[in-house]
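WARN no homologs supplied; continuing
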Amino acid sequence: MTDTLSIYLVQMNPTVGGLEKNAARIAEAYQRGSDAGGDLVLTPELSLTGYPLEDLVLKPFFVRSAMAAAKELATITKGDGKPGLIIGCPWYEGDILHNAVILLEGGEIKAIRYKHDLPNYGVFDEKRVFVPGPPQKPIDFRGFKLGAMICEDMWFPSCSNRLAHLGADILLVPTCSPFELDKHPERRVHARNRVDETGLPLIFCNQMSGQDELVFDGGSFVLGADGTMPVQMAFWKEEELLTTWQRGSNGLECTMQHECSAPSHFESMYQAMVLGLKDYVEKNRFPGVLIGLSGGIDSALSAAVAVDALGADKVHCVMMPSKYTSGESLGDAEECAKALGVKYDVVAIKPGVEAFDTMLSGVFAGVEPDTTEENIQSRLRGVLLMALSNKFGKMVLTTGNKSEMSVGYATLYGDMCGGYSVLKDVYKLDVFELSRWRNENVPEGALGPLGEVIPTNIITKPPTAELREDQKDEDSLPPYEALDDMLRCLVDEEMSVDEVIARGHSASEVARIEHLLYIAEYKRRQAPPGVKITRKNFGRDRRYPITNGFRSARRDK
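OK structure emitted
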């Protein structure tokens, strides 16, 4: 019986549904693991198919294709001295569909284990598509017993306790754990609990990718049986690492060290936006993005993220001034475009506004101007951006933030027009902080320039939509310091109006914001996807009815 074991960890970026591409990437990583001297190559949950699969996995032909690809991958493990390979793949047992990990060794499938605890909350819907597997036993591998737990299996003690009882030497956790703020410490707490309960070391192997609204930040790690962390892999980038293990009197011990520091709060937020946009654009094969650059902070930050994600040559910014656009905004937009090095055009909307005024003059006769005329300007800008998108193929990037989308401070078919939003889950105050952070930092892997990429004046001037004379956001909304706090309470924490009032906010203002939040649901349903940052994003996390008569504020007071 051997007393040493080398496990090669693959923190990879698969494409959902891209079976051939994913299989090729796994095969390449397997060869690197073999060259490095690994006995076993470990990939994340559903590494062959990508994650989350949503209803794609309900298509039997897709699952059969994935199973065939897994069997084909087994051939690369054939031959003396070659390492084993653990992959993730949906798997039929009869007509029952499971989320599975599969050990490939010696040219064949040696073992299959099924996910037992299926998550069904927040962004997860696994009970919709998979059937829980029965309690599992360890996998015998070259004199060691490997306790495989798939993602959510680690968050509860039943699987690890059973595996330990059946003689497991180590807990392996292939996972697809999506990013949200403060998620990584939570992962470590659950992992350490499983280690403390079982006395076994644990390997947590996570995906690093963007998939529509979700991003996966990597951050794979190893915990020793004593609770120490000898290995912390990188965040926000793919990485592969050979871990070495020695059997001793206290069981398996990791005999190497590898330490990557965790990113800061705002670096994590920024990197999430960069990765989400980069993978959405590249995996959907868009040639680049179009942004309406207004001279305001939201579009400036969106442009900075786009340049860092894609490169300046793939970002086209367009200023679309009206008669209400100030010279200050024109100058700020041009300065921002120059700082980022992007293609920049100015297309005035005045002729279009005048044409609409003429077209509608008869039916609008005798009716005072209101937000209708303001929204026409926004919708004209949407038409212009979509025309450029149709002509040149680039995807329109919307620039609204979470504060605005919460209360419906956005124009349907206007500034909401587009294919993706990097600020969808970012409150306005965080937009300011992220802009300051980016001016002082260049995130690892970013393609944008050093230095100040968002002019200081854009950050310091009062926010305005510039759809009428002397307009400011605070004409229609509370100051963002108050608004964002109310929204975090109402949205992220699901507090009642009375609970928010108890924090010192005006009763009438809180009731108004709650009402705006509810009636804007129909707009949010028509908004493009955007990167999930917080625990409660608008989309997969929060599924409110559009037709909704409930208000926690009692209007008869």
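Residues 4-262 form a domain with the Nitrilase/N-carbamoyl-D-aminoacid amidohydrolase fold (CATH 3.60.110.10).
OK
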